[in-house]
Amino acid sequence: xxxxxxxxxxxxxxxxxxxxxxxxxxxxxxxxxxxxxxxxxxxxxxxxxxxxxxxxxxxxxxxxxxxxxxxxxxxxxxxxxxxxxxxxxxxxx
Length: 93
Fold this sequence. Notes:
This protein has strands at 2-5, 8-12, 17-19, 22-26, 35-44, 48-57, 60-68, 82-85, 90-92. By secondary structure, it is mainly beta.
């Protein structure tokens, strides 16, 4: 699977985990040069507290377009160390 934004592959892996229709990519599969840490956080009642990345590709930014759970609940342990996307990021095979 590939995560693509602004015509650029920002993550690629054959080992994504799908939860709630979102592909979670292993952290080592993201191209870190396109990711900037964000101060944004949100809480999911069953997964835990999410942290976000802003994407920066070719001079354009997509604020908080990627998220991950630094600590997960027992129910969400399959996505620990994985990153998911939204806000115009497309997922393709």
